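=== RUN LOG ===
request id: a7f3
mode: sequence -> structure
chains: 1
length: 728
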Amino acid sequence: MAFDPFLLRAQSLIHAGLFDDARKIYDNLIQERGETAELRYSISFLEQKLGNRKKAIKILKALTAEFPTNNDYLYDLAFTQLLDGKIGAAEKICQGLIAQSTDNPSLYIKSRRLLGQILLVRQKYQERFLLCKELIELDPSNLDLRQDYGIALKDIKLYAEAVNEFAVILEKNPEHEEAIVLSAIAHQDNGNHLEAIKFFDMIKAEEENDLNIAFRQCHSYLQLSRHEDAYSLLMKLPKSAKKMAPYWLNLGNIMNARKKTGEAIKCFRRGRKLTQKDYILDNNLALALVTVGRIDEAVRVFKSAIKGATGTSSLPAIYSNALFCFQYWPKITAQKLSKMHLEYETLIGAPAILPQKYDNDRSRDRPLRIGYISDDLVNHPVGFFVSSVIIRHDRSAVESFCYSSKIYEDFITYKIKSNAHHWRRIVGLGPDEVKAIVQRDKIDILVDLSGHTAGNHLKMMSEKPVPVQATWAGYVGTTGMKAMDWLIADRFHVPPELEYLHREKIWRMPHGYICFDPSTAMLPVSPLPALSNGFVTFCSFNNPNKLNEGILNVWAEILLRVPNSRLRLRYGSLGEPYQFKRVAKVFIDRGIDPARLQIENGGDGTSMYRAYQQCDIALDTSPYSGGLTTCEALWLGLPVVTFPGERFASRHSFSHVSNAGLTETIANSWENYVDIAVNLAEDIPHLTEIRGSLRAMIASSPLCDADLFVRDLESGFRHMWHDWLDGR
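=== RESULT ===
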């Protein structure tokens, strides 16, 4: 068969996709020679390529019945059965071939490779890895075996090792298309999108018709904030791409990046119609719904996402997203929310027994090696808070290490990098790799600055790589993890009666749990706008996530009780028609003229501060209170009315206002909240007095005393270290 020119020609046509031409050759040969075994075998190959697997299997079964010792027929029958989903039958033949190939190395390797494919279909990744490792040791120069081994490494999440295997293939054959694609996928799965894009860009033009590869490339562009490149790639795809869910997933992500949340929601919904229970689409749709404050709906979709992701590697991230979403949900109790956090460890497979031995220097009073790990060491509230600390650390008492997983850097990053003892960029590294770096640095106390927000490192921290771990500033309460020793808080966020809601031990800062650096908000305090306007302007420049129907109704009540007053809302895409309609409807339904509402998109920091200069009273949100937003409002002379609840997230403004000394704006009920706002609006002389004195009051308070804050924080670190040394 191998030397028959007609059969060789037909096989070449099949490989080229010219199936009709190959069929003509076979028809002519049947007329001339009859249905010989060689010809029937060749026809089975054609039927397999055409997708007619049952026809191919029928032919091959007949051949193996006639020629039971022909290994080629047996192998192809097993291979075709595997393609047709008859895994058990394929494995039985495969095991038989292996048993009789002890003196035939070529058949042994070939049959073992096929067994590896069967293990892959059965999702027995570890077994397949061991099999592929055995084969590569038998024939290290075989690029097909090396490719199999690289895929097996990727499947058990050893991405760096997988990339190395594909690199060996590319070193010997730089145009090996499969190795290029696999390298891109391995880098992407490992979170290293910069490297992934390098390989995606190497894929030849004719390979762009592979839509799954195009969708992956689009995803990496988005992760690198190359939104226009992602959009351009999607727009070049054929119309058939729109019939696939990943098209709408990527387009929805692009719309999100463009702050067109309403369009993003439409895209995600369209994608969901094309597939059954896609947990990634559910997750992204839920996040978009949170962004526009539709929390009830987001909760329902998150529950679907969690159910769909059960048993996958995506579940921990989706569950973290859901936990963060539930922080905005008024309908969940603090107790239920706490219980949900405790369930997180089970989902990520946290070790039951944590490490007890560390080789850190156990001296009590030596300089401590403090690590700060975050995806937000940029122009972000966490970046602001941390930069203030890093600058002021006593370098004789603390050696600081910063671990950043953010893909980009900015002026805040530079500020932190310039003042930290050590800067570690951990972009694209997996949990095991980050763990190794942290342990190599011999960190004494690792400070988590993310909690359950995006890009967190809780999976790595669940294995307790260092003696002491604490969570601070990046999240709103407990992580739910036994591996997290401490939650850095204050007496306002976690009074003794609320400790039970948190798994960690509580370290209470003597004043506030963060310190506000006003250097970025240096605009002067303006005269009270109500004096010239003739009406009072209330405001809230909080994230729309926090603008639930309950708090909007409270504000509507305030507007009804203060005739001619105005409400100004400002943030991100809040002025988008989709958002405006949702928010304005609550007030219109209460009979409030929409002309009294000013709902607008946000801008840069300076424009926001100027907007504060045009407002009189700030209104806090609930159940997720304002943080940095509240500090900025206070600094620009606006009293902030707040009502703290039991949740950590609901007590930010309570803490900041208390530390600033303006306790008269702290309510003990929603009725009291409304009364405080109304009384302030009706007492213009008192409001004017607050406007004139608030900045000086704050500037001299613990809220803005960064040096005091850092000394207190360092004292806390020393206490945590001694607590560990003493085995408490």
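=== NOTES ===
The longest strand covers residues 368-374.
The mean pLDDT is 92.
=== END ===
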